Amino acid sequence: MRSYEDTYQHKGLRRQLVNLLKEKGISDERVLDAINAIPRHFFLDSAFDKIAYEDRAFPIGEGQTISQPYTVAYQTQLLNVKKSDKVLEIGTGSVYQATILAELGAWVFTIERQKKLYELHKKYYFRNKYLNLKFFYGDGFEGLPTFGPFDKIIITAAAPFVPPKLVEQLKPGGIMVLPVDEGNSQRMLRITKTAEGSLIEEAFDQFSFVPMLTGRNG
Ligand code: SAH
């Protein structure tokens, strides 16, 4: 069950969450505005209504989770999304992260490997608002060669390595943000493809994601 009512209480909790994200170091005002604009509780079962604005991951079914707001804000900030950027997201899950990217004005292509989660897009609440968001069922390791190359690529599951086909689908000057496995946690990496096609890799903080798995499921 979902509830699509955005009350003053929800809005107040969302503002508190934005303040917390600022305290934790998120400084990009556009990212903070997007978090403030999108009702996160719309992406969760109504059982989570009272806690949807805690800075935590929550289950969304099929053993998957909606990412923690701090993680969503952190990855989005590193991605430096500009209006009309073509962005590929691996791991649609709840569609929350994809909606933040769409709110920032990007053309968003999001891939999910779990059939049941992919099918949730048919009931996507904002389907008439974010016409710049397209859903795909497939294996993120393959990317979307026919729709690429992309300005930005974001992986929202723990990648065992930097997927080579995704590097190929990144434009010169493009940026990919992904958590890469280091045992029990992952290191957030930002890979920038230079105009000449060489790669610059920067390492950031440790996070904990569900694994990026090969093939489709369902
Ligand atoms: N961005 C999501 C996070 C969901 S968790 C959100 O905002 O809610 C990560 C998601 O990645 C899961 O739904 C999982 O099924 C999916 N996933 C894992 N490996 C994948 C792959 N190879 N291709 C596409 N999706 C994948």
UniProtKB/TrEMBL annotation:
Main location: cytoplasm
Record's signal peptide: none
Molecular function terms from GO: protein-L-isoaspartate (D-aspartate) O-methyltransferase activity
Record InterPro entries: PCMT, SAM-dependent_MTases_sf
Localization per Swiss-Prot or TrEMBL: Cytoplasm
NCBIfam families membership: pimt, PRK00312.1
PANTHER family: PROTEIN-L-ISOASPARTATE O-METHYLTRANSFERASE, PROTEIN-L-ISOASPARTATE(D-ASPARTATE) O-METHYLTRANSFERASE
Protein name from the UniProt record: Protein-L-isoaspartate O-methyltransferase
Naturally occurring in which organism (per UniProt): Hydrobacter penzbergensis
Gene from which this protein is expressed: pcm
